[in-house]
Amino acid sequence: IYIKGGGDPSLGSRFFSKKINLFKKEWFDAIRKLGIDSITGSVIGDATWFKDDMIPTTWIWGDIGNYYGAGPSGLSIYDNTFYLDFTSGPKSGDPTEITCIRPYVPGLNVDNRVVSANIRNDQAYIFGAPYNQNRIIQGRIPKNKENFEVKGAMPDPAYQAAWELSWLLIDSGLVVNGVPTTVRRSRAKGQEFEAKRIRFHEHRSPSLSQIIYWTNMLSINLYAEHLLRALAKRKYKDGSNFSGTVAIGKHWEAKGINTIGLHVNDGSGLSRYNAISAEHLTRILASMDSSKYSKSFKSSLPIAGRSGTLKNMCKGTSAEGNLRAKSGTMSRVKSYAGYVTTKSKRRLAFSVMINNHSCTGQELKKKLERLMVTMASYPK
């Protein structure tokens, strides 16, 4: 039995359903409906809809093992994320213990070097490459905690999907003779597959607008990377990072935007090789304002004081409920781009970018918040 991925990032996603395992019941019911009670071969995950290189070449080592550095796969599952539950000691410097890994990731080996500390937030970082089962986690978490959650990037989502279905079938009494695997793993061993397959069940993703909504509302890097590769697949029949970035540049050139100095290396902006100006973004926003997709695009942007990454900003001001913007944050980088209507009913598209700031992230956020309120209060 093959599980053929089509680039859907939402399979088993917590953003779309609290019942993240519901799809497995649908798959199982479809198999039993055919009267299948045994499989002489294996359950095989097929992620070939996209290229195998889940991580863009310009991402840094310190990001790719963590949940925000989860790479896109032709067959993704559970947001390509696993969760580590920690128990920490009562004193700073005490060792910590991993009490649970959710979901169970077959073969995962975690070298835990995290210690307890007198802090309030998660300062633990996971290091590990795609398709590799070894992970090192180091850093600090708050002391005296139970079930403290740290999120990591799943090593091989396609294999995870095959493993999950294979064991569901076995636990339900079916006979599965082969071990779960993927097309990528099998080809690495020199095995090839017959082209002929019979499709007996299809799982459809949510609409594109729904996926874009969560991408922008909560800054989900994984979804942005999926959208980039889906664009590459649609435009060039090549689900690669490179083809996706080429398609983006050509699209905005065709819209009349000067793309000199615009360098796009991924879908989410996690790459430090990206370069884009505030002028690029405001012109893109202005173009989207007159697009037939304007309404769905704008509805995906967080609203100041109301939703998403802007939920706690600009409350009680003229920007609350008025300003919509996408935030962007990295080490020493803070940016916002979106729309606001002034007191005189003038509509503005804006972009502000701060690189290599010397103040803290929170201090800078407050400064930019004041700037956004000023725009909303502007009388002209």
Any key phrases for this structure?
single chain, 380 residues, alpha/beta, three-stranded parallel sheet, three-stranded antiparallel sheet, 10 helices, 14 strands, 29% helix
Question: What would your notes on this structure say?
Answer:
With 380 residues, the protein is an alpha/beta fold. 29% of the residues lie in helices and 21% in strands. It is built from ten helices and 14 strands. The strands form five sheets. The chain has a three-stranded parallel β-sheet with strand order 1-3-11. Strands 5-4-9 form a three-stranded antiparallel β-sheet, with no helix packed on it. Helix 5 runs antiparallel to helix 6 (221-236) and helix 6 packs across helix 7 (241-254). The radius of gyration is 23 Å and the shape is globular. The termini are far apart. The mean pLDDT is 96.
User: Can you summarize the main beta sheet?
Assistant: 3 strands, parallel
- Average pLDDT value? 96
Given the C-alpha coordinates, what overall shape results?
Answer: globular
Strand order of the largest sheet: 1-3-11
Strand content: 15-25%
- Low-confidence regions: none
Total strands: the figure is 14
Ends: how far apart?
64 Å
Radius of gyration: 23 Å
The number of helical elements comes to 10
Order of helices and strands: EHEEHEEEEEEHEEHHHHHHEEEH
Structural class estimated from helices and strands: alpha/beta
